[in-house]
Specification:
The chain is mostly helical. About 65% of the residues lie in helices and about 0% in strands. It has one domain (about 10-360).
Length: about 375
């Protein structure tokens, strides 16, 4: 499909979806979720654990969907960005060079955030930016390919990963779905010299490329000159297919995000496509949610706020605000002081985005 098919309208649902995901990521750096985990109410603690923490190994929590959301959203943006650059007169070579440069910068930022240890340089490539550098480039290279080719490459990425885990022959790393004893652990040691904390696998970039490729396909679908109802129907069908494949495959393949098993890729992919369909229906079709400024201001500067919060922006605001919340509230309720501290830090990080939005400053790579 030609990515210039439809460029007449901005996809507001994508702005909302991206902004919501980034808002949640920023909230994590505010330590607000930690405060919710420290209540005496078992139900609140259990809900916060499900919503804002990864599953320990097997299982699927809401927070396990955040990275698939992020990678999928990047994929949806690719055909819009590609088409806009063509419209501005950029050549294919210029667009391709920009994509390679962007992938390199994502890898560089990922290394800068997570590979510079307190005492030495470490090489760890399980973070979202480092993995996105690979999945983004794979999806970009498929932008002019047919849907059949795109689906085939996505399934191939999943299949290759699945087979490597199941049939990897190295003794000590031949237990496909056992933490620290599988192909993912061996690959971590191969490229970094050690197994990663939490058993996150650097090789996840390969199977999760499917999320970004599916995002690319969704973006191309939404750019077509067809009716809203037809686009929504196709999104929902795709979501249902992925969910069925995910739940069926979970019978013989455990759902494990930390090594991105086949069942996890399909389940998270299905819920991600479904989330986009819901946003598209609410915002672009029904216009039920017209004022999405709260999330939009975060979504238009996603890389900046992620990097700013990651390198200490949240901690900086904590140091400024904490003496006041402890003094004014901590005396009669330490938990409330911690909760209010998280809220104020979250608002402060949001306000940085709002200030940039008001100044029409959009930091991109």
């Amino acid at each position: 499909m030609n990515p210039t098919t439809q460029l007449n309208q901005r996809l507001h649902s994508l702005d909302f979806f991206r902004g919501l995901v980034m808002f949640l990521l920023v909230a994590e750096f505010s330590h607000l979720f930690g405060a919710l985990m420290n209540t005496d109410n078992h139900y609140i603690t259990a809900a916060a654990d499900f919503l804002f923490h990864h599953a320990q190994w097997e299982g699927l929590h809401f927070w396990d969907l955040i990275q698939p959301f992020f990678m999928f959203i990047v994929g949806v943006s690719i055909p819009y960005s590609y088409g806009n650059r063509l419209k501005k007169g950029d050549s294919e070579k210029q667009i391709r060079n920009h994509a390679f440069r962007r992938a390199f910068l994502l890898l560089l930022f990922g290394c800068g955030l997570y590979c510079i240890g307190p005492e030495k340089i470490i090489f760890q490539f399980d973070n979202v930016l480092a993995q996105l550098s690979f999945t983004y480039l794979v999806a970009f290279l498929l932008v002019k390919k047919t849907p059949v080719m795109q689906v085939s490459i996505a399934l191939l990425c999943i299949l290759v990963s699945d087979l490597l885990y199941r049939f990897f022959p190295v003794v000590g790393f031949d237990q496909a779905f056992v933490a620290g004893q599988n192909f993912g652990a061996w690959f971590n040691i191969l490229i970094s010299g050690y197994e990663y904390g939490g058993h996150w696998a650097a090789f996840n970039a390969v199977p999760t490329a499917a999320h970004t490729i599916w995002g690319l396909m969704a973006g191309q679908l939404l750019m077509r000159n067809s009716s809203h109802s037809d686009k929504l129907k196709r999104l929902l069908i795709a979501a249902i297919i992925c969910l069925i494949l995910g739940y069926v495959s979970s019978v013989f393949t455990p759902v494990i995000k930390r090594i991105s098993t086949t069942s996890f890729i399909f389940l998270s992919g299905g819920w991600t496509v479904f989330a986009l369909a819901v946003c598209y229906w609410i915002i672009d079709i029904k216009s039920y949610l017209k004022k999405t400024l709260v999330f939009t201001v975060v979504g238009v500067n996603p890389l900046f706020i992620y990097l700013f919060a990651s390198v200490g922006g949240g901690d900086l605001f904590q140091k400024i605000v904490k003496p006041f919340t402890n003094t004014l509230i901590g005396g009669f309720s330490p938990w409330l002081a911690s909760f209010m501290l998280g809220l104020i830090v979250l608002f402060s990080l949001w306000f940085v985005c709002y200030w940039l939005y008001q100044k029409r400053i959009f930091i991109k790579i």
